[in-house]
Amino acid sequence: MKALKNSCLILIVTLFVSCSSDDNNTQKPKSSHVITLNNETYVVNTVIVEPAAGDNTFISLINKTESEFLDAINNGTQLNNVNVFNMRINQSPLGEQAYGFSDIPNFEFFENAQIINGELEDGNILLDNNNADTNLNASTGSFTLDLYANDQIEFSFQFTRNDGTEISGTYNGNFLYLASDE
Fold it and tell me: DSSP character for 27?
């Protein structure tokens, strides 16, 4: 009788384990260094935060590494295939809070641009705040800063272009702080 109880217990435990969900093994972790537009994903390797005059802060998200980008800007090295998302937020210093569309007066997103002689050139415009093609302009947008510490930043943003296309992004990681030259 004791052998039968042990066999039943082993059978129940085996059934319980074999019926457990495998969902945890099939889920892909969401990246926290991306910009999405339609079904396209743009990787972000560098984030730059730069306070400016007039209580403004510029934030740039770039697909190139920090060293590649700084070399191109500071030394005039040509850098190709640059994706860059820039926005200006009407606050300096930034605070951990949500910023509405009226707090973000300037924004732009370029794909496949170049940095030539320290300047951003050419590229396909995917989002702009004042473009002749009004479909590329945004009608709504927001930026939420969840963490802003000495060496870490975590944020998300979302813009909707006039043609209904959504552009969103998330980032959680290190950033480069550029002090202003006031």
Answer: P
Instruction: Quote the tokens at residue 165.
Output: 């296309």
Amino acid, res. 50: E
List C-alpha distances in Å: 149 to 145, 160, 176, 177, 181.
11, 29, 12, 11, 22
pLDDT one-digit tens code per residue, 8-65: 333 333 333 344 444 444 444 456 788 999 889 999 999 999 998 889 999 999 999 9
Distance spanning both ends of the chain, measured CA to CA: 87
Residue 115 to residue 83: CA distance in whole angstroms: 10
Residues 6+ apart with CB under 8 A from 72: 64, 78, 79, 115, 118
Report the amino acid identity of residue 147. L
Name the 3-class secondary structure at 97: coil
